[in-house]
What we know:
Immunoglobulin-like; six-stranded parallel sheet; 51 strands; elongated; disordered N terminus
Amino acid sequence: MNMKTNNLVAAWALLLSLPQLSTAADPDLPYESGSTGADGDLILAQSLPNRYDFAYAFDASRNETVLFSGHDLGEAGRRSAGFKPETWVFDGTQWAQRTHATFVSARSNVDMVYDVERQQIVMFGGQRADNVILGDTWIWDGTDWTEQTPASAPSPRRYHAMVWDAENDRVLLFGGQDASNPSVWFGDLWAWDGTTWTEIDTPETQADLRRQDYGDMVWDSANNRAVYYNDWSRRTFIFSGGTWTEVVTSQKPALGPDQRMVYDPVRDEVISTGRFRTWVFKNNEWELKTPANQILNRSSNQHGIVWDSQANHVLLFGGYGDHLGRNVFQDTRSWDGTTWTRILGRRFTVDMAEKADGVWNYEAITIPATVDVVFTKNEANSPVTWLATGEVKIDGRILLNGQTAPANNQTGAVARGGPGGFDGGIGGIRFDVSGSYTGTAGQGPGGTPSPTEPSQSATYGNYNGVYGNTLIQPLIGGSGGGGGSSSATANGGNGGGGGGAILIATSRDIELNGLVLATGGGRGSGAGLGGGGSGGAVRLVADRLVGSGSIDARGGNNRTGTNNGRVRLEAFFRPLAANVTTPVPSATAPVEAIDLTDQPDLRVISVAGNNVADPPTGSLNSPDVVFTAAGEITVTVEGDNIPPGTPVTLRITTSEGIINLPASNAASVTLSAGGTASFTTMVPAGLGTIQAFAEFTLSE
């Protein structure tokens, strides 16, 4: 044990005598992450929470989009998880929840609009969480809600439409569903003057106008008129000069119930959205747009769409997808008249190609509750290493899971491991096509083979108890499951990818209220089932590890045992450890400083006389080395920062099984003084992969 460790243990004893200290006031303890801070802060923008069927409007005086209430889709993305009496605003960069003194009951099927004259938002009615239909009027002034007590008002309703009438400086409210009789749809029109509601007497130029259900309305400021469209009847109406008039169009958008509309004053056109479609109403005709970037499938709609007068573009946000509401849309997109651009979404993607070794040196790290961090692997398949000098706060999710096995459709597609994890194998191709029942093995030290007999299931990839150690040094991800064997007429199932690996270390505290997931990918179906991937590895090191979150590194299909990955928690004060049960973590004070300089590296440099690119692609569709026949090959490996004399092993997966070198009864193969070692073996024809491993102990 080095001197740093002895000093840290003394500090730990001191900390235990002061449990009353809050995280904010906690003094700095002696642990140092080694971060240079060269990559600055990783502070991610808050995305929109799970919401659909909410009230929304753009507040032009404060240059922010305001969203109130609606349904919460929940983490699982299921519809009707609950109503939320919350107010959120988008400032053009991120969403933030606003706290306010006055409570307003949660609701859906509601509308609100910005009152330009009085610089406030007006909201009316809607359906409360207990299904009561409301007839209340509320004002939002940018800080708090205030209920109004007008002398007269529309009857309680839902599914109504509201717009700002710029010609007469008033809010207009049209239609909606009757609270006492759901089969009745109103055709009345009301005006709000900032004090009370007044019904507008409009000639009934269309006998069935009052039957227009689930419609939407916007104000066309260039022509001083309201435009109303309803997908149910495919009819367009104009309100101008106190009269409703139908506009007969050749095109009739099919957008689904609850389509959304907004007016673009820059281009003088009405935008209507729903499903995958974007329609524009201009010069009294509808036109279907075909942008390069379509909006996602909001087939049941109930999203929000506003004109952002600060940025001069349309904003679209929230909603849900299919009829079961399982698609969660937390993205915010803009429309510039030509295409849709994603401004903000739940997923933040880290491109591992930016760091060949996978190491980032941050100052502070903040991941909000509505954000998922995902990773694209680099060529070296490096695990993720985040070092920080300051506080690390994770309220969202860090996702390093191995992929679930794709269908074995003979394209060679594999389930990729998470960053630092290994790919799953491919199921055997049907015997009447390939002449073999066997597929390929899962990759990684614990990857499992594909059975040789027909219609046999492969076993799950292994990690815990097979490789790695409780210190998770070196940092390495999970192994892939093997491909299942085929039958005479059916392909075998592919194997799942192994979970990835991450180290997060900071010289201050880590507060985890969200999730870190490094699970193995699920197994694929087929004549023989593929094996699921093993779990990966998660290591957190800090002064203190606190929070209510958790870590999951179990094997694919929720497997445990040797399929579990590993979790390691190092801190002087670590109540977070009590929340982590899958798998149970090893937890101690920090055992040593993390030195990422001169890390050991072992690579295959030639196969059968052919040089191998560094790093190799490992792609089964485009092999790094090609030789044309079965026979004897020589494989040469090279190591850096590995002591001479260190034993080296090879794992060669072939169409006929796995070859482990040296054989159990053969002499060991060690690195020479020049850092190389060679192996010679016989291999069959067909695709295969080669992996090299060395294990040694570093001494100080």
